[in-house]
Amino acid sequence: MTLKDNNKSEEGRRNNAFQRYAPKLLSFLIFRLKNKADAQDLTQETYVRLMHVKHNDVIRQPDAYLFKIADNLANEFLMKQNRNPMTTDLETVMKMGKDGDQNASVRATEAHLALQQLEQSLDKISPLYKSVLLLRKRDGLSHKEIAKQLQISPNTVHVYLTRALLYCRAELTE
Amino acid sequence: MSIAKLRNKQIAEEASAWAVKLDAGPLAIGDKKALVLWLSQSALHVDELLLSAAIMTGLSAVDAQKKISIDDLLKEAAPEIVTLFPNKPHAPSKKGQSYKYLVQSRKYMTAIAAVIMISVLTGLYLFLANPYAQGQIAFVTNTGEQRSITLKDGSVVHANTETKIDIKYSETERTVKLLRGEAMFEVAHDAARPFRVYSRATIAQAVGTTFNVRQVDGVIKVAVLEGIVAVRSGHKPGNINTAPDMPGYKKYLLKAGEQASVTENGDIIANANPNIKAVASWRIRKLIFMSDTLATIAAEFNRYNYEQIYVDDKTIAALKFSGVFNADDPHSFIKYLESSNKINIDRPRPSEFRLNAHVYTNN
Q1: In angstroms, rounded to a whole number, what is the distance separating the alpha carbons of residues B301 and A115?
Q2: Residues in chain A within 8 Å Cβ distance of B46
Q3: Cβ of B50 and A166 within 8 Å?
Q4: Strands B164-169 and B137-140: what pairing?
Q5: What are the two backbone dihedrals, phi and then psi, of residue B335, each rounded to the nearest 5 degrees?
Q6: Average pLDDT over residues A55-61
Q7: What is the pLDDT of residue A137?
Q8: Interface contact A48, partner B, CB < 8 A
Q9: Cα(B297)–Cα(B292) distance, rounded to whole angstroms?
Q10: Model confidence pLDDT, tens digit, residues A131-170
Q11: pLDDT in tens, B130-166
Q12: Closest residue, chain B, to A118 (C-alpha)
């Protein structure tokens, strides 16, 4: 596997692998929510492959390597099962109405269901964590901007976001 | 499912922190190395990070129509904190006040701190009953040494030179005892467990803020850099069963930019014009003086260095100086004094500077 060395342009970019792999990560989420056992086989294999990449290469962009490997494996896995590789982007999901679109593909429906699950998980977390999470993800504010708005330190913002995400994760999975 | 029931709670928690960091922007090189090390621990780590990162990504599609109001959420958040202490008899009237303030200003954190401040010191008794229970961390810094420790909840304790600290976390309270010296606290928010710093008979309490506590010659100085801190005095070490609401138990609310001193007899004196920048300057090992006396300045340098400055002449001890110096470099200050032509400096041995009035100075 090769990963384009774009270290220089990387520095100028505000957001990194996380943003580039957003559609893939979303696909992974849908996959994982639907089929935990397969997803865990997949991450097991991802781990093995990640450990085989040259240490110096991984250090340069650990997140990009991780997401890339997981995505490749997910596609391999689905090809074996004679299914189309899952590629659903956020825009498709966001364009969909709440009631679902009659013509929507199975994939988009799955994405929609995942999104619903996410929204439900958010309902259960405390309003404070929820507000910090919405400011970051829905409104796209930086940690610093949130810190300023709520009069707390960026370190506290980080802690709140971590807890909020952990709650969502706990709510989402069994 | 609750977090407590998660099978891999620790890993899930760490994965969550990494996902938040990755989402915030490119990692620093040190973080990249740490992430690789973390991932290499097991496949479970990989699984948890992929899951957390995927959830974090998916969350950006939530509530695309922006139907949820952040202001409403923040208002809704307050009652949870109030109900934490339902047994406080005086609470209702004061609670009302805090609410008004919250609605008016919407300074959410301020309101939480105010509400917590009026709460009972429930954890105090537990702490006093068993101050040396298990799970306690203690650490000491030597002359000139500074150390920062990140605690389990994300709070950070920065200890200055010649400081001794005991830390104990219980279910109801995050307890820090400042036995000597000075420390700055960046407190991670946890409304259920107030963060309390005990120093002699003084208690400084916060729920999510940054503040500095210093013990010097029996006086406790508390300065707030961010948020709100409740300061209480009157808890006498010899009489630990004294109830917090008994007469003689004083309390004071400090806002960001404010400073107060608690004297040995428990009086809390607000400092009218604190120089908060100077209070916080030790973190970057700077000493900032604004018309401070030579005696004060010498004592400040002496906290950080084995080379001690002695002011032998009372007439010069009250002379005032201003300036910014490196805490580790008393020489620069000595040179500055020499240039003033008011002070005579002797160095009988390498570890000692002796200051006297300059023989040619007429007052």
Answers
A1: 59
A2: 43-44, 46-47, 50, 66
A3: no
A4: antiparallel
A5: -65, -40
A6: 84
A7: 92
A8: yes
A9: 7
A10: 899 999 999 999 999 988 887 888 889 988 998 999 898 8
A11: 333 334 678 788 887 788 887 878 888 888 888 999 8
A12: B59
Which among B184, B204, B207 is positioned nearest to B110, based on CA atoms? B207
Q: What is the ipTM of this complex?
A: 0.81
User: Which tens digit of pLDDT belongs to each residue from B177-236?
Assistant: 999 999 999 888 887 788 889 888 788 888 678 899 998 888 889 998 888 888 887 654
pTM for this model (two decimals): 0.45
Backbone angles phi, psi at A115, to 5 degrees: -65, -40
Task: With beta carbons under 8 A apart, name residues in chain A contacting B24.
Answer: 142-143, 158
Tokens of A53: 């990449």
Residue B171: the pLDDT is 82
Give pLDDT, residue B219.
87
B26 contacts in chain A (CB < 8 Å) = 10-11, 13, 15-16
B185 DSSP β-pair partners = B157, B211
Find, among B308, B299, B297, B322, the residue nearest to B354 by Cα: B308
Question: Out of A21, A133, A143, whose CB is closest to B24?
Answer: A143
Smallest Cα distance from B198 to chain A, Å: 22
Please, what sign has the CA dihedral across residues B320, B324, B327, B331? negative
Per CB-CB distance under 8 Å, the chain A contacts of B227 are 151-152
H or E element, residue B43: helix B43-58
Is the Cβ pair A25, B58 closer than 8 Å? yes
Q: How far apart are CA B37 and CA A64, in angstroms?
A: 15
Cα separations in angstroms, B290 against B257, B278, B336:
17, 9, 15
Which sign does the torsion angle of CA A150, A156, A159, A163 carry? negative
β pairing state of B195-199 and B174-186: parallel
Chain B, 123 to 162: residues with Cβ < 8 Å from chain A are 153-154, 156
Report for A33-47, B3-17, B261-275, B306-320: range of highest mean pLDDT:
B306-320
Q: Please, is B284 exposed, middle or buried when counting C-beta atoms within 10 Å of its C-beta (0-12, 13-18, 19+)? A: exposed
Query: Does residue A64 sit at the B interface (CB-CB below 8 Å)?
Result: no
Q: Give me the pLDDT at residue B360, please.
A: 61
Percentages helix, strand, coil for chain B (3-state, rounded to 5) are: 35, 30, 35
CA distance B299 to B33: 42
Of residues B229, B51, B289, the one with CA closest to residue A165:
B51
A43 and B46: CB-CB below 8 Å? yes
